[in-house]
Predict the structure of Multimeric flavodoxin WrbA.
Amino acid sequence: MKAIAVNGSPRRKWNTAQMLESALSGCRDAGAETELVHLIDLKFKGCTSCFGCKRLGGPSYAKCAMRDDLTRVLDDVWDADVLIVGSPVYFGDVTADVRAFLERLWFSILMYNKEHTVRAPKSMPVKIILTTNAPEFGFHKSLNEGLIGTMSRFIGPAELIEANATLQFDDYGKYDAGMFDVDDRIKRHNEVFPQDCRRAYEMGKRAVAEAKELK
Ligand SMILES: Cc1cc2nc3c(=O)[nH]c(=O)nc-3n(C[C@H](O)[C@H](O)[C@H](O)COP(=O)(O)O)c2cc1C
């Protein structure tokens, strides 16, 4: 049993990464091996419309034909039993790196036949973690619905949690950040963020249990 987590934040140790680490810790406690990929460490592009994944009889039919650092990650995703994707929300969407990852992951298995068949090599639970400046869950409602809808249809039952009003800087005094109530951010970071991480941990445990049921 293996769980892979993909971190779409350019920051390897901040909010999204910590939520993902918590989720993976839950996966490990439920008996899974884990892998954490930081997309920022990889050299890769989004889909380049080569259509190798649609080429009838071709060597990459229903697989991403591009060859770069993401190739191994896509292979690892399909080897795994649980997929966890984490992203900060940037301008109401996932980060550019996550978008590029999802283009490659999704487009390669979506067939252009009349039925729009999805040829995923397997079904697995998908857990999505978003972290936001926005104060509450569901502020970016259509983003959440789009991610859950596509992941569920393409890969497997999907669930999404968020950490909201996250801490963005070590020291707010050093930045032009007058829009924030700094005391409230710090209080929230100390009191609510640990609970968010706990929810991520529980979600990781749940994901492994669900993956066992799917087997
Ligand atoms: C370029 C950029 C755009 C952002 N856009 C949004 C946004 O549209 N909505 C939001 O709630 N937060 C937005 N944020 C805040 C981040 O989503 C939030 O601070 C997140 O927790 C950062 O994750 P990290 O600590 O893992 O890097 C933005 C931050 C950056 C740097």
The chain has one domain: 2-214. The radius of gyration is 18 Å.
